[in-house]
Design a protein that fits this description.
heterodimer; A: about 190 residues; mainly alpha; B: mainly alpha; about 0% strand; flat
């Protein structure tokens, strides 16, 4: 009987002494009344135990990646949709022999429909560009020829002196007083 | 895939693959791999293409080759006639591009021939080899070291140098 109570108190004592399990009051250690430690089923509202994980912030990284995706897809998705629809529903042109006597329009020399559209709406025809360039060259040629001619004419006018250029205005002949010249050694 | 050019005008070289004379019972790995490639890549791609072409219907648009008229060359231009120079220069540039493509076609033929014949190509593709040598020699002598800023005028001067060298050697 006494041994049983000694064993029981020893068991209670050792059970009580585990410092990790419970906060012990000093009075509790030697008393016979031990607080019962039972396994209680804890029910969380979430899946498993919620942890407070300590790690460095990823706010800025996630914000950057979010904004990157947003701005890329803002125009990326419409462009991708446009290209898909054009390639699937309109389709590329096929190479064919030009029919007799038919002069193809300048956009009909390209294959992809978007290239054809750009050539038709935004660009001038290559023939027109060629003619524009030749017109510029013609104007510059005429300018250079005229400049060379002007230099030639200047040279001749200076040399011969009988042209309209390089004429110096002199006094009127009638203003000259010839009276002192009539009698020499005045 | 739709064909891009007329196969009668630019014919592919004739195949010279020998008749299969199998003397073992082992499976041919090349055959296995080609069948694998066919079923995993070729067939899905072709069926997809067929679906897309079904969607597109028969309203096909066409594109054509552009034919340029021949104009007078640089040697036939009066001095100081810059418009004539421009037209001759443009024609020379188009001819330069055409010659580059010709060289590429000949190179492609030689490459294909070498691939077909394997180690004995020096003997079996002598025609392609000779053609390639001629074409590349001609291209080198005409357009060889003109550089990135090549022009019809520089090409003409190169031809003049060539003719002077020939006259001196003779």
């Amino acid at each position: 009987m006494v041994g049983m109570s000694v064993l029981r108190s020893a068991a209670a004592f050792t059970a009580r002494l585990n410092p990790l399990k419970r906060p012990h009051l000093a009075s509790n250690l030697l008393s016979r009344n031990v607080a019962r430690m039972e396994q209680v089923a804890v029910r969380h509202g979430s899946h498993g135990k919620s942890m407070f994980i300590i790690k460095p912030t990823d706010f800025y990284d996630r914000r950057f990646l979010h904004l990157l995706r947003y701005y890329i897809l803002l125009t990326g998705i419409p462009v991708a949709a446009l290209l898909t629809f054009v390639n699937v529903f309109v389709g590329e042109a096929e190479l064919a022999e030009a029919p007799e006597g038919y002069e193809p329009e300048h956009w009909e020399y390209y294959k992809h429909p978007i290239t054809r559209w750009i050539a038709r709406t935004l660009y001038d025809s290559p023939v027109k560009d060629y003619e524009k360039m030749m017109a510029l060259i013609q104007m510059e040629t005429e300018k250079s020829v005229m400049r060379l001619q002007q230099l030639e004419v200047r040279k001749h006018m200076r040399e011969n002196g009988d042209g309209p250029w390089f004429q110096v205005e002199t006094l009127d002949k009638n203003l000259i007083d010839h009276s002192p010249k009539s009698s020499p050694d005045n | 895939m739709p064909q891009d050019y007329d196969k009668d005008v630019y014919p592919e070289p004739a195949r010279q693959t020998p008749v299969v004379d199998k003397q073992t019972t082992l499976p041919n790995p090349a055959l296995i791999l080609s069948k694998l490639f066919y079923y995993s890549v070729d067939l899905p791609v072709t069926t997809f293409r067929g679906i897309i072409e079904g969607i597109q219907g028969d309203k096909k648009s066409h594109y054509y080759h552009q034919n340029f008229r021949r104009v007078s060359e640089l040697t036939e231009c009066q001095e100081g006639d810059y418009v004539c120079y421009y037209e001759a220069e443009m024609q020379w540039r188009r001819d330069y591009k055409v010659d580059q493509e010709i060289v590429k076609v000949i190179q492609e033929r030689l490459r294909a021939c070498q691939q077909r014949e394997g180690p004995s190509y020096t003997q079996n593709c002598s025609k392609e080899l000779q053609q390639f040598n001629e074409v590349s020699k001609g291209f080198q002598s005409r357009y060889g070291d003109l550089g990135a800023y090549a022009s019809s005028r520089k090409c003409l001067m190169k031809q003049k140098e060539r003719m002077m060298a020939e006259a001196q050697n003779a």
